[in-house]
Amino acid sequence: MNGFDADRDVYRTLLESTKAIPWKIDWHSMTFSYIGPQIETLLGWSPDSWVSVNDWVERMHPEDRERVVGFCVSQSQAGTDHEADYRALTRDGDYVWIRDVVHVVRNEEGGVESLVGFMFDISERKHTEQQLIRLQKELEELSYKDGLTGIANRRMFDATLEQEWNDARRRCQPLALILLDIDNFKEYNDHFGHLQGDDCLRTVARILSRAATRPRDFVGRFGGEEFALILPESDARAARTVAERCRQLLTEQALPHPAALATPTVTLSLGVSSLVPGEQDCPLAFIESVDRLLYRAKQSGRNRIEAG
């Protein structure tokens, strides 16, 4: 064995002793001239089954195929080294996350001669990334959720109102807002205690969620015993109908409230308004106008709706 063959054997031994899977593709024939035996340990496919680029393509997850193949081909044609992550099919029918690191080899004329690279198993890393993404999503959802009632919180109310306001103004559509308050809630807490008061808040939240039936209707806790409903594409009449449904559903629930002066059950006071936002209008002024209607309902005897 001459020195060149010895060196080549050493290099091959080094390559095949790593977890990374080396490979080489002839650019003109689009065939594998080499792929490390580690590929069989990882995916179950024997090295001699990797004949052409089509074998690589067909063993890629269908959802990744178009994106990855298009990217790799364009980068290779441009002579640019690149990396690509994708799911590779195992012989058992499962998928393993792979990162392909590709180096473009040029000939003396500057044309692409071959592609050489390494495949890395990144399944564990991807699993960790996906867990982090799920955790981040859960934390984001929690940041917009009221911890006591499970419905949206004030932060989500502000974000939703801004979004729906801009949409309504752009499309010249009406937007309705309902602000409502549990009547004599302080007296309820004083009589039953705060734990039962929390149960009352949760019950009201569930009832309001039943009253707002369309997918885009928003129900949230505005603060304390006050709640809010945002109703896109709802005029004053439609908004009042939803408000009356809220009041009626709670009446049917008949939650006892011995400390209330007017009625023996828990009731609601509601302020309702609708408008088509114009360039001179602003959400804060709209909220304040509906809040004044709610205050008027409270001052006028409670358990009633004031619309404007």
Automatic annotation (TrEMBL):
GO biological process terms on file: cell adhesion involved in single-species biofilm formation; negative regulation of bacterial-type flagellum-dependent cell motility
Any Gene Ontology CC annotation: plasma membrane
Residue ranges annotated for the PAS domain, each copy included: 7-68
One of the record's GO molecular function terms: diguanylate cyclase activity
Enzyme class of the recorded protein, top EC level: transferase
Superkingdom of this protein's organism: Bacteria
Residue ranges occupied by any GGDEF domain in the UniProt entry: 173-308
Pfam entry (one): PAS_3
Signal peptide: none
Catalysed reaction equations from the record: 2 GTP = 3',3'-c-di-GMP + 2 diphosphate
CDD domains: GGDEF, PAS
EC number: 2.7.7.65
Domain PAC: 82-134
Cofactor(s) this protein cannot do without: Mg(2+)
InterPro entries per record: Diguanylate_Cyclase (IPR050469), GGDEF_dom (IPR000160), Nucleotide_cyclase (IPR029787), PAC (IPR001610), PAS (IPR000014), PAS-assoc_C (IPR000700), PAS-like_dom_sf (IPR035965), PAS_fold_3 (IPR013655)
Name of the protein in its database record: diguanylate cyclase
Species in which this protein is naturally found: Zobellella denitrificans
Lineage: Bacteria, Pseudomonadati, Pseudomonadota, Gammaproteobacteria, Aeromonadales
